[in-house]
Predict the 3D structure of the following.
Amino acid sequence: VSEDDDFSQYVAARWSRLVRSAVLLGCSPAEAEDIAQATLERCLLKWSKVQAADDRDGYVHRILLNTFTSSRRRRWTGERPKAQLPGRLHENAAARVDDADAIARALQNLTVDQRGVVVLRYYAHLNEQQTAAVLGVAPGTVKSRLSRALKTLGEDPSLIELRGIR
Amino acid sequence: MTEPNWGDLLERAADRTAVRPAPLASIRAGAARRRRRRALAVTGVSAAAVIAVIAGSVLLTSTVPPQAPRPPVTTDGPAPGPEGTRLVGL
């Protein structure tokens, strides 16, 4: 398989996962697509390195996290005041997104570090060692961040409500 | 109340996001743009370094004070003795 084909196959397989990881990290869908695209552009520049990595997904997620963190430092991604909300959801649609909204709101209450750990562990399905390698911290730090994050999520009123209903 | 399955909750939340197909062509174009930009930056930095070295050299040579008079490299040898004599001793 040539390098180009390998990259194309990887993008086809992982694109939606990367976009959704960025959404869980706190991006809007459009911003998440931009970040996933920037991530893959960076990966393509050194695809041979990505191929040689022991844990390819971990490597790509590290770039995704770095891209996300960098994008948050720039002013242009900041919120801008608007007279009207950009769009209103139909009531049925609103009901459908209730769960997702509750989880998204609960995730917003976490720190960026905690959110990163939660997304890497429970959405990217990286183990503790891989998560530690991606974040550049000790496995013990991953454990403690995850523990605090889950405690915060467990106490979130909207999630308690959601769990009570289901 | 049981401990929630966080993985499942996150999957459900993430699945609500509709994702368009991967813009492979845009990704490749973006990577090519980044590569060009990086090459340009490397060239710029190299050029700036060369200019800095040349400018530094010129600056150093232009600020050296005018040359001081140099001491003679050699001195005149001793005057030869009178005709028909030679130096003896020591």
Observations:
- Chain B has a mean pLDDT of 85.
- Chain B touches chain A through 29 residues (CB under 8 Å).
- The two ends of chain B are 117 Å apart (CA to CA).
